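Task card 7
Instruction: Convert sequence to structure tokens.
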Amino acid sequence: MTHTSLTLQSTRLLGSGAKIPLLGFGTYLLEPGKQAEETVLWALHSGYRHIDTATFYRNEVSVGNAIRQSGIPREDIFVTTKLFNNDHGYDKAIAAANLSLEKLGLEYVDLYLIHSPQPGPELRAESWKALETLVEQGKVKNIGVSNYSVAHLKELLASNPRIKPAVNQVEIHPWLARKDIVKFSTEHDIVIEAYSPLSRGHRLQDPTVIKVGEKYNKSAAQVLIRWSLQHGNVVIPKSSDKERIVQNADVFNFELSEDDMRILDNLNDNYVSGWDPTVSK
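Output:
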């Protein structure tokens, strides 16, 4: 797929043969209840077909309600949720996944991620075995990890898992390229998902990004999302603002030139906008 052929319907193929939409909608910090339901509905009605939630976000019930209210067939929406730190271990991970499904009101999720490697080697190994069991039970279609460094990925792959991770979801934007993680993941057919692609808004006023955007009549946020897409990432921007949700999806009618991609690549200074579990032991 060429960059110019990307659309809101574009997908990446996962190891299982499943297709994951390139543009997702993140739900972190959306308040459970009316805000989360309305916002997810706006996203779905704006054309997003990939919704990313997590136990830690406390809004799985609201996400599930929005999916049902949308009227969109379940099989047309790619749903991700995540196992948080206090639910690690084989039995606890199985129970946590079942609780997430109950809260979402869904028979299965399309992707279930270990949210962080922080609980340590023994527990994350047990949890991965639980995720494999959930796939075999049909409750989870694909499994992956989040915030895993190269060392964490090597540890998992060295354990000869029955199912390899389909995805590694990490913070990525021009100021945090994660080239080592991207390279290793790509070499092992692990799709990179970029969360916080807008640096949590911390650097949306960067003059270099604004200047690039002016060339294409696009906002800094649109430039950042497009940059990540052109690097082959699945991208998960988030917003609670209806207009910005629509704008964040309006990134398929332009292509950043090779020169502009290089200019943005050169911004990398390893800036982490939030937490960074990749440094965990």
